[in-house]
Amino acid sequence: MTFDKQLYQLLAKWPGAAYVLCGETPPKGLRYSAPVVKAIERRLDGLIEPSDHSKPRRIVEVQFQNLADIYPRTAAAMALLHQTNVKRQIEAVILFATRKLDPRTKPWSAVIRAVYIDEAIEELRKKDPRHPLVAAFEPVFEKRQSRLAAKARTCYNSIQKSSLPAPAQEACLAIFLSWMTERFKKLSRKEFTMILNLPPISKTRIGRELLAEGRLEGRLEGHCAMALKQAAHKFGHLSSSTIKAIRALKAPELESLGVALLDMKSMKELRAWLELR
Asked: For residue 249, which of 188, 210, 253, 267 is within the disulfide window of CB 3.0 to 4.6 Å?
């Protein structure tokens, strides 16, 4: 299953989710972006800026895999972003899927907040079992397929009937359905809606978008597999961060990478190319 991409899509539509997962009340007037920090030519996956300039800007990183340098990378981005506006506070939060993924790198772990999504979701569940984030993350943390299938309709309704603004509600439904289709990918469209007792997926705009993505998924996976093989053949072992970056590319970018790899001479060139995307 893929996680980072869906979670950033959620934050783009509902930046307040980054505060809810931290157990905080979201400030008003939040704006989400993914700017490039020019000094290091690296795109931030998530920057949330409250309209109230007395509130700090917040860098958000999502980690669903082991990445040893996540703290120094985030700290570097914090420092460079702060230089662009030293009068405004800057803070950073790393959303780890689970506690075991946190390398707790000192001294940066003292200034960058770590939040463990599985624990945050459980805290939300205790306060409100029908919270839309609890429902949206059910396909991620419920290990038993039978229990997940039994909960599917309740989760869907919890999101659909929530008091979230329409864009946030749609984003929650989108990641829920996306993760559900990944968990039950052996089911046909009809079986998916019947067995899980969900509304016909093709009858909803989000469902139609997911089905369209699914039709493109095979071609995208082919491009991705070819780029990974080409890079590994040329440079040998690929780090987990490099593999993750390549998997995050869209089809046109993967095609461009295939051409660019022909002229690349080192892994350093590959990393520089990926950081510009």
From this structure: 253
Q: Rounded distance, CA 265 to CA 277, Å?
A: 19
Please, which residues have CB within 8 angstroms of residue 232's CB and are 6 or more apart in sequence?
238
Question: Would you call 32 helix, strand, or coil by DSSP?
Answer: strand
**DSSP label at residue 234:** H
Residue 154 near residue 136 (C-beta atoms within 8 A) = no
Rg (CA), the chain: 20
| Tens digit of pLDDT at every position of the chain (277 positions) | 667 888 998 999 999 999 999 999 999 999 999 887 666 566 788 999 999 999 999 999 999 988 899 999 999 999 988 988 889 999 999 999 999 999 999 999 999 999 999 999 999 999 999 999 999 999 999 999 889 988 988 999 999 899 999 999 989 998 998 898 888 887 776 666 666 676 655 555 555 555 455 544 555 566 687 788 888 888 888 888 888 888 888 777 887 887 788 778 889 889 888 888 6
- Report the 10 Å Cβ neighbour count for 272: 13
Measured CA distances, 117 to 139, 177, 214, 217 (Å): 13, 19, 27, 27
Q: Which residues contact 111 (CB under 8 A, 6 or more apart)?
A: 75, 78, 92
Edge-to-edge strand order for the sheet containing 57-63?
30-33, 47-50, 57-63, 90-96, 113-116
β-strand partners of 33: 47
Q: Which two tokens stand for residue 191?
A: 């079986």
From residue 95, alpha-carbon distances to 14, 25, 80, 116 in Å are 15, 17, 21, 6
